[in-house]
TrEMBL record:
It comes from Siminovitchia sediminis. Pfam families: Chromate_transp. The chain crosses the membrane at residues 86-114, 120-141, 153-184, 204-225, 301-323, 335-354, 360-379. Belongs to the chromate ion transporter (CHR) (TC 2.A.51) family. It is found in: Cell membrane. The keyword Transmembrane helix applies. This is Chromate transporter. Keywords: Cell membrane, Membrane, Transmembrane, Transmembrane helix.
Amino acid sequence: MGDKEVKHRNPSVRSLLEILLVSTRLGLTSFGGPVAHLGYFHEEYIRRRKWMDEKSYADLVALCQFLPGPASSQVGIGIGVMRAGILGGIVSFLGFTLPSVLALILFALILQGLEIGEIGWIHGLKIVAVAVVAHAIWGMAEKLAPDLKRKAIVLLTLAVTLLWPTAYTQVGVILLSGLAGYLLYTQHQADDDAKLHFPVSRKFGTACLVLFFGLLVLLPIIREATSLHWIAMFDSFYRSGSLVFGGGHVVLPLLEREFVPVGWVSEEAFLAGYGAAQAVPGPLFTFAAYLGAVMNGWGGGLLATVAIFLPAFLLILGTLPFWDSLRRNSKVKGALMGVNAAVVGILISAFYQPIWTSSILAPVDFAFAAILFSMLAFWKLPPWVIVLTGAAGGAVIQYF
């Protein structure tokens, strides 16, 4: 990278302000999910501003696809760090994430005190969730499970997570699927020789990884020892953000099983918020802000946001210094192929329970879901149009 791209040691206020303005504009306009976000990033950061070269950007995207957590948010953090150091990464994250965080917290506060199950447009948002997740499954299955071996992993994962629906089951099948991919795809070749330069030392990266795993182990222990509600919340959101492979949609079953069975969030409120999250730009992980606000107002929303995104920060800063050697290992890529197939199975399981079983209650619901799915998949309408149509249609359906 040229000299222009290495102003990260001592970032100026001007460079940080530039990152904030650009990332905030992206946070206000980036609809369409993580793949679309990466396209927006490429257009703005690479083609227009040339903050990174094409190969470095491709390397960064590859790493973030490999890591658990919100891939598009991690790419944005990585670009900010390369541009202006760790402060640049924080500013980039805030700009891209805060618009949807604030919108979803406000939505949660508006819903407080309402009988959600009796509101027609809320039911419409739940049907939107059916269409959106079905579309995500379709696209991910085509890309991540194209051969019979990976289709078998998908089916086994689906069966196991439906029969034993716990967070520990999901972690187990992800690990076993990674092992299966490691064994089945030993000949998978790494074909990218580009080198990625990153302004973080291996010592600092190691410290971030130690903190990541330390919190993952210690938070449940502290939770049991103290019985403090905010510690329990932080632990649940942190663990969910740490164990999600495959992007925002896959966090749904983890969050649902953390908060709905224990009664912290009702199933109706959960699905209504998930539908509303489709209407806002930015990362789907900001759905956590909605859940936190449902439980504890503004403070809960901000706490949930910090907790669910903290693993993304620690992992991107911790792994980038080691990525060049790791990504060339063909067996590591094979393990990742198995994990990605398991993600599809987990998503199908979440599609059935709780999304389908709580949203499709009558033939008219199914017909409306099919219309929304067609608008999204075949007519290529933007997600916010689907959400508005779903809300309006739900208000009408209640009179049938």
